[in-house]
Amino acid sequence: MADSYIVLQVPLEEDLLPLTALLRRRGVPHRIYEEEGQQVLAVFDRQHVQPVASLYQAWRRGQVTIEPGDPRPVAASASRFQWRQSPVTALFGLVSIVLFLALLLGAPQQWLGWLTFTPFEIRAGQLHFLPMGDQYWRLVTPIFLHFGWLHITFNTLWLWELGSKVERVTGSPNTLGLLLVIALVSNICQYQFGGPGLFGGMSGVVYGLLGFSWVAPLVQPRWVIQPARAIMLLMVGWLFLCLFGVVEFLGFGAIANAAHLGGLVVGLALGAAFGLLSRLQDSGRQGL
């Protein structure tokens, strides 16, 4: 898993804003969080530990003056950072958007047929589903199918909001595996519950990331990725509205409830497992 390396532990009242602004302008990935009544500044590359520590010491001795810069370049730098730190999450969102626009603009129906959980063909105006055979990519690809502007917008925004934070603490390879496992479980749950059908969307993965983001920090407090309580209430409340048919009754269309619930459950389990493994790794390093 991707690690962060602690550089500083300073009192809460110390203002690190000028330092963090400079680090962002210089393109140094880092984060600041509170732990045991202190501010902790950590970096994600071991090679940055000594330079950042030296910069801080020189700044505090008055040997380096950090001038307040234009906040717009700093924000732009931070934004570029997030994209570079979360390439897997960005790729999943981009693929979803590109496929949605392609199908919306009249891409061949065969494209849709390649991505559904089970193959299908239309005979005499009727939809007939076929055996999957050895086309195992279909276990995952329905997550890239979206059926409306609200669907694609909701899913990609929440994918980025949750997935980018998870990727920054677990690393891109682990995030890729995490997303694929959640996709696999959520799609299989939906198929087992609803049978053959045209279902899709990233929402099962979103709920998996939600569960992961809630549980993992409870086990590994160093991962400051837990969603705000209001977000949890919103998302879980939406899940229950879907489960009880309220959303479908209001005209939002059929909802893949089993995918949502399956994604959430596997996300909770993976969050506990990843968090525990990270804690064990921390304990092993401290024992050396």
Automatic annotation (TrEMBL):
GO cellular component: membrane
Any single GO BP term: proteolysis
Extent of the signal sequence: none
GO molecular function annotations of the record: serine-type endopeptidase activity
Keywords of the record: Cell inner membrane, Cell membrane, Hydrolase, Membrane, Protease, Transmembrane, Transmembrane helix
Membrane topology: Multi-pass membrane protein
Domain Peptidase S54 rhomboid intervals: 134-274
A Pfam family it matches: NRho
PANTHER family: RHOMBOID PROTEASE GLPG (PTHR43066:SF26), RHOMBOID-RELATED PROTEIN (PTHR43066)
Protein's name according to its UniProt entry: Rhomboid family intramembrane serine protease
The organism of origin for this protein: Seongchinamella sediminis
Upper taxonomic lineage: Bacteria, Pseudomonadati, Pseudomonadota, Gammaproteobacteria, Cellvibrionales
